[in-house]
Amino acid sequence: GAGVSQTPSNKVTEKGKYVELRCDPISGHTALYWYRQSLGQGPEFLIYFQGTGAADDSGLPNDRFFAVRPEGSVSTLKIQRTERGDSAVYLCASSLWGDRSYNEQFFGPGTRLTVL
Amino acid sequence: KQEVTQIPAALSVPEGENLVLNCSFTDSAIYNLQWFRQDPGKGLTSLLLIQSSQREQTSGRLNASLDKSSGRSTLYIAASQPGDSATYLCAVKEYGNKLVFGAGTILRVKS
Asked: Is A96 on the interface with B (CB under 8 A)?
């Protein structure tokens, strides 16, 4: 079946603008994760959804970042008043469940965000 | 706070060599450890997942081991090929379900 998909693949915006990044998880996966990867670094956790609710949003850097998953499937990461430091690749992952030791996370191709 | 370190940061080997990538983590309270591959400009592909109760996992030419008490994992790649060239990332899953990643090892296999 289809893997995790993310749109757009690339987004260029100007400082101060609002952006939305979309993630379509693997069908049937209850858990969804957002990560951010800066150049030369490993991904850093942002937020984790179990179903429709955010189970852990401890990685969101500040209140300009917000994510929703209203129907427990597709998720949108929203960034307000973008700053140049927000430029990174935003990765989405999903897993069948959240809290099992054998639970594997499957990643999408990412959205490359560039803030000019 | 969990910290994951990968050594070496970069590695260049001739085709056919066997090689070992190292990963260490500071807090042994983990659910599992995953090894990923990342090609330039692409997302992450999961290679192997080792549960906290397991010692190793194998898939084809890849073998990953886990020593939870010492906070170490190794990824062994046998008979390396140019197509293995990529960045290899290890990540530990904490009880909060998030993955904590290392910075990766950039592998180049020369033909």
From this structure: no
